């Protein structure tokens, strides 16, 4: 497995493989890999001749008061996991390789980025869209893999890839969960044992919603309130948002007539956890 | 010469040529071709196996009170000029092919876009950066050609292509001038005979600057004032800006110690003309 830190080395690697008519799959990550990432890697390995995994904690997608500095990192463990999987290449650039002096460009997506996490984390999706554009261009990927846990991120990426005519297929992969249902996340490491129990309130709230729907409830605000009450009943939870939106436009829904996305962001202790489900 | 209107047809054409190891040159234009465009075409034909010329009057780079609707167009004449040159492919998409419903993305460059024309034409360079990103991705160009008359545009394009790691070499081509020195421009067609004479004030002001430099003048504001006075002495001129800036950062210069860019934008009648020279 190649471990590359320079953009030009990745370009050369990819160029050589493409010259042999090999297809390229990209799995962009911020490292500290968990089963969710490895599922993306599995899909890429199955679909493509060559799989490139990027490991880059992207400062541009963290707000000034967010956890960029403390975001968990374990490069050596990541490398051995990826080697075991049979990944062909890891791209792990330093920050100044991705954002050299005089860097001045951003990719901005209107609309989709203005609700949910975009509303709570200003600049976050610009940071995501910019770095993903760079990674897709650097790796010239035929396919790139993203988890549905970051549902809004997936929709934003699908949008700008289409809008900018980037020649990569974007693949969304279902959420991977622990045995008890908690969505796997690098930030789960922040949770104490007690908080771990409270963190289950997110996935458990899906049952609350399903029960209300089964009872015939169609008022999205009533459902939201019941979810808020449910999660707030757990210790150390602090709701960032509970939203019911259209799964395509991510726009607010008042009345439920069709399928919808329940999207959750909840602080449990200091960990900001997200989860979602389409009903 | 192929004339294509659909993105997917261009992709297929380019893919086939690249499969034969052909290099691709792109000349993006808004049509109504003049000698300046044809010079870009000449360079592309010389450097590349395949030359694609795009003809697209890009609504996203015009302000609400600008000349999008009246911008001169002559598709048939453009086509015969390009056929004569030996161009391989013309890409002439309709607006809704480039900006379909729900289009929501823009490429934004900070700093460089905030002076000169960027200051006078809000959103202009976002429109340029977005459409050029699309065209580069659609054509997968090895090289793309832009005139130095639009000096700021060239700098903005160089910037975001580098920042987003787009794998295309950007080539800047010297300004083409009429015999009397007027920079060729599609908008020159707006000029009456009298205005045509006043339009020469832009290129003639370069001599004013050179004389001042020869006399030892180093105060950029003094030079600016003398250029403003000179151009204002011609009938029907209305100065949009006269700027002396650093040729790389496009930042204002007060004292001349090194090389600088004189950049001009002047309305002559209803035509907004630009010109520039590095001293």
TrEMBL record, chains A, B:
One GO BP: pantothenate biosynthetic process
CDD domains: PanC (cd00560)
Active site: 37
Pathway: Cofactor biosynthesis; (R)-pantothenate biosynthesis; (R)-pantothenate from (R)-pantoate and beta-alanine: step 1/1
InterPro entries given in the database record: Pantoate_ligase, Pantoate_ligase_C, Rossmann-like_a/b/a_fold
Assigned EC number: 6.3.2.1
Keyword presence, Ligase: yes
Catalytically driven reaction(s): (R)-pantoate + beta-alanine + ATP = (R)-pantothenate + AMP + diphosphate + H(+)
Function: Catalyzes the condensation of pantoate with beta-alanine in an ATP-dependent reaction via a pantoyl-adenylate intermediate.
Subunit structure: Homodimer.
UniProt-recorded name of the protein: Pantothenate synthetase
Organism: Flexistipes sinusarabici (strain ATCC 49648 / DSM 4947 / MAS 10)
Gene name, Swiss-Prot/TrEMBL: panC
């Amino acid at each position: 497995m190649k471990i590359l830190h320079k953009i030009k080395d990745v370009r050369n690697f990819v160029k050589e493989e493409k010259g042999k008519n090999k297809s390229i799959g990209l799995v962009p990550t911020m490292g500290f890999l968990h089963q969710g990432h490895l599922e993306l890697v599995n899909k890429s390995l199955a679909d493509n001749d060559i799989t490139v995994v990027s490991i880059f904690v992207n400062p541009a997608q963290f707000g000034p008061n967010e956890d960029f500095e403390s975001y968990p990192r374990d490069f050596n463990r990541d490398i051995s996991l990826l080697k075991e999987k049979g990944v062909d290449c890891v791209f792990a650039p330093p920050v100044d390789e991705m954002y050299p002096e005089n860097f001045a460009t951003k990719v901005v997506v209107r609309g989709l980025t203005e609700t949910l996490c975009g509303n709570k984390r200003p600049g976050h999706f610009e940071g995501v869209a910019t770095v993903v554009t760079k990674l897709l261009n650097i790796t010239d990927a035929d396919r790139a893999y993203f988890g549905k846990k970051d549902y809004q991120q997936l929709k934003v990426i699908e949008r700008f890839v289409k809008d900018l005519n980037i020649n990569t297929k974007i693949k969304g992969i279902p959420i991977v969960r622990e045995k008890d249902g908690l969505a796997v996340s690098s930030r789960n490491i922040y949770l104490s044992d007690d908080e771990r129990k409270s963190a289950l309130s997110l996935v458990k709230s899906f049952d609350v919603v399903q029960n209300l729907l089964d009872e015939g409830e169609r008022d999205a605000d009533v459902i939201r309130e019941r979810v808020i009450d449910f999660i707030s009943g757990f210790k150390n939870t602090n709701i960032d948002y509970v939203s019911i939106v259209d799964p395509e436009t991510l726009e607010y829904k008042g009345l439920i007539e069709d399928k919808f996305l329940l999207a959750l962001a909840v602080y449990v202790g200091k960990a900001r956890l997200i989860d979602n489900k389409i009903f």
